[in-house]
Specification:
Blueprint: H1 2-10, H2 23-31, E1 42-45, E2 48-51, H3 53-63, H4 71-94, H5 99-128, H6 140-153, H7 164-174, H8 177-182, H9 195-205
Helix pairs in contact: 1-3, 1-6, 4-5, 4-6, 6-7
Length: about 210
């Protein structure tokens, strides 16, 4: 759900959150037919009940003009966003591992960020020569790249030391008014899952 938070916040859209804290809440959503594949997140917007994170993000990006000016820009935005989502999913999945495996997996995430993902985006910024990843307009791809950078920096604060363009990108995007507001203390941005979160999820869904 966090990437959805980011996209809504970047678009300057106010939203309300409801958390599942009991199995009964989950079962009610299932009974009402809201969870298409039995999974959250779920977003209610424009008279629709949407599930599946990728579909939700795609709809919101198009609705709030964050998906490029044409199909060629849109597919590049999708491509870059999917790449950062792969990186973020590695972090999210590691949280659910036993402590020893978790530590190894998170170290691998940092290594892959430095050797696979961040070099790609550093080159994209260099070759493109603009402030943003696609065209000359802020997009969903920029939002997700910043989110990924901050997630990896929580694991290794110096991870951008060899990527000057990404460092400048992070500063530039973080200072955009809607993003800056989202990153302030008391914001709706959620920290990475911790042990308590994992326990709640397992209790609700009986994982």
């Amino acid at each position: 759900m966090e990437s959805i938070h980011w996209l809504l916040a970047a678009a300057g859209v106010e939203f309300e959150e409801e958390f599942l804290e009991t199995r009964e809440q989950y079962e009610k959503l299932q009974k009402d037919g809201h969870l298409l594949f039995g999974q959250v997140p779920l977003v209610e917007i424009d008279g629709m009940v949407l599930t599946q994170t990728r579909a939700i993000l795609s709809y919101l990006a198009a609705k709030y003009n964050l998906r490029g000016k044409d199909l060629k820009e849109a597919v590049r935005i999708d491509m870059y966003a999917d790449g950062t989502l792969d990186l973020m999913m590695m972090i999210a999945q590691a949280v659910f591992k036993p402590p020893e495996e978790k530590e190894e997996d998170l170290a691998l995430v940092v290594q892959k960020a430095k050797t696979r993902y961040f070099p790609v985006f550093e080159k994209i910024l260099k070759d493109h020569g603009e402030d943003f990843l696609v065209g000359n307009t802020f997009s969903w791809a920029d939002i997700q790249l910043l989110e990924a950078i901050l997630m990896v920096e929580e694991l290794n604060a110096s991870v951008l030391s060899d990527f000057p363009l990404l460092k400048a990108f992070k500063t530039r995007i973080s200072n955009m008014p809607t993003i800056k507001k989202f990153l302030q203390p008391g914001r709706q941005r959620q920290p990475p899952p911790d042990g308590r979160y994992v326990e709640v999820v397992r209790n609700v869904l009986q994982l």
